[in-house]
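Sequence design from tokenized structure. All designs in this work follow the same two-part layout: the structure record, then the generated sequence. An example of the structure record is given first.
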């Protein structure tokens, strides 16, 4: 299982970023894919998830601002992040879990991409 995140960066509060997770080495279509984040000094938290059945989960803190989607033909999952806030600053990771429903807490992880939201 290989997961590679991209799309992180520095953005002003109120701005947008689109993260992508490129997957390889496994049967992508039967995996739930989740986005997680970890801010300095805080525990990792689940942000959004899309299951193999296309069930979707969002953490309350991002509902209405973030949108997760998957393209099984391209083995990618995207996270569109709008109306970003300072508290969204974190390292964002994607993870994959076979046959899981959303949300899930354990699986295979990517290396992460930094998102920094400035005032």
């Amino acid at each position: 299982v290989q997961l590679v995140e991209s799309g992180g960066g520095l953005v002003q509060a109120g701005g947008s970023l689109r993260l992508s997770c490129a997957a390889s080495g496994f049967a992508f279509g039967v995996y739930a894919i989740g986005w997680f984040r970890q801010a300095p000094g805080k525990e990792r938290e689940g942000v959004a998830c899309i299951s193999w059945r296309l069930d979707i989960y969002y953490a309350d803190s991002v509902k209405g601002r973030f949108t997760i989607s998957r393209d099984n033909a391209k083995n990618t999952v995207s996270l569109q992040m709008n109306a970003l806030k300072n508290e969204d600053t974190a390292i964002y990771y994607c993870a994959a879990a076979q046959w899981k429903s959303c949300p899930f807490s354990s699986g295979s992880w990517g290396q992460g991409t930094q998102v920094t939201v400035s005032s």
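The chain has a mean pLDDT of 97. We note this feature because it recurs in several other targets discussed in the main text.
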